[in-house]
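Appendix C reproduces, verbatim, an entry submitted by the partner laboratory led by Prof. M.T., so that reviewers can inspect both the input and the predicted structure.
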Amino acid sequence: MTQRDIAKQLLSNNSIVSSRELADSGVHRETIRRLIESGEMIRIARGLYSSPQFIPAEKYSLIVAQKTVKRGVVCLMSALSFHEIGTQNPSEVWMAISRPGRIPTVDNIPMKVITFSGASFTEGIETHQIDDDEIKVYCISKTVADCFKYRNKIGLDVAIEALKDVIQNKRTSIEEIIHYAEVCRVRKIMRPYMESIV
């Protein structure tokens, strides 16, 4: 297979392909440049490419964020929106990275990068498919616990709304919420709110 063939195969299997994925498959920059010039590939953001037939998915910004911050996890406001919890509709994508970690410079989409550490970063990660791409998102219970942990960044009212929503609509179990409250070390903070809802 030629480099052109490899690039086209990657594009047929993924709606968005990063320059790293192309390079790892043996496609050089010059080939990428030629494919863009010939109209066989389009540049949608720095280091991200797609086919000319590309139609952005509903959650397109999450795919771009995941491709940009490869080891990141969709969190907080964006995770609430993804799981359809509460009334949040963030204008930027919230991503968690492991601490210590270099906060990446992102210029293609509005993004808020938060550093998590230890089990707070590694626990509760789910993988979801959007079209041909995968994104990593914290599960519902972990997202609610994170909202209380980072209440100073997103607002206590947002955290309480999320907790009410998931309990009243039975989106998860109390046991799971308690588990992630312990992981995030916010069980004491969450307890009175949980007791008032339950």
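Residues 156-168 form the longest helix (13 residues). Additional entries are available on request from the coordinating office.
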